[in-house]
Structures are given as C-alpha cells and as structure tokens.
Design brief:
- By secondary structure, this protein is an alpha+beta fold.
- 15% of the residues lie in helices and 32% in strands.
- It has a 5-stranded antiparallel beta sheet with strand order 1-2-3-5-4.
- The longest helix has 12 residues.
- It is globular and about 35 Å long.
- The protein starts with a strand and ends with a helix.
- 24% of the residues are buried.
C-alpha cells in the first residue's frame, strides 16, 4: 500500500507517502475499514535489525510482484492501525494497479523472511 505512515505517536499522516505492508484488514464496521500496516523504507536496506525483512531488486519475480520501486525493508516492530481512507492512503506514482493505493503482493517465497522477522519481534 502507498501510505502516509505516521512519523510519531500523534497518529497524524506523515509528510510523505511510503510503502507499507498490510497485516490485517478490519471490516467489522464496513463500509468503514481499518487496516494494520507495517512501516517500509528504502533507506539503509543493507542493515537489518530484529523484526525487519527486505525485498530487494535481486529477488526477481518476488520483487516485481511487490510493486516496489526500490529495495525496501519493512519493520514489523513499527505497525499501526489506520482508517482506510484518502487521508492516509493514496495512489502510488505511475499508478501500477490503477487508481488504488495497492502496490503489489507479497510473493510466497518471501514468507520465510517474514516469519524470521516476526520471530525477532516475539523474542523481545
């Protein structure tokens, strides 16, 4: 998802949109939806800490399916529940999936990385 992830605990939209990984969709108040998303960044992707995993250009098909523009790491320790609306989510540059915030999908080959990152979150 293309998300204005909050930069602090005030839960106000961040200055710039960034990739975010959707963990959960809450539809109990449909048609008002909420989503739990994980922070993504293309900065310092050469270093991974507990709770982080990377999707790299070198991941081939998995990277292409992700819809990312750069090697990106996601931090499972930084997740937040947000309302799914235009204040928080927008159409990414180039609109790869049409006029929706969706970037792509998580390829099944990346699941071991996600599981290892999740183990790093639980161990702390």
């Amino acid at each position: 998802m293309w998300c204005r992830f909050p930069e602090d605990l005030r839960l106000t939209p961040g200055r710039k949109p960034r990739p975010a990984l959707v963990l959960t969709v809450f539809d109990d108040a449909a048609p008002e939806y909420r989503v739990r998303v994980v922070y993504g960044t293309s900065q310092k992707t050469d270093r991974l800490y507990a709770g982080e995993f990377r999707i790299a250009v070198t991941d081939g098909d998995a990277y292409r399916l992700s819809g990312l523009s750069y090697t990106t790491k996601f931090n499972l320790k930084r997740s937040v529940e947000l309302p799914y609306n235009e204040e928080w989510f927008g159409v990414p540059p180039g609109a790869p999936r049409g006029q929706v915030p969706r970037l792509g999908v998580l390829h099944p080959s990346l699941l071991p990385r996600v599981q290892a990152a999740w183990a790093g979150v639980r161990d702390r």
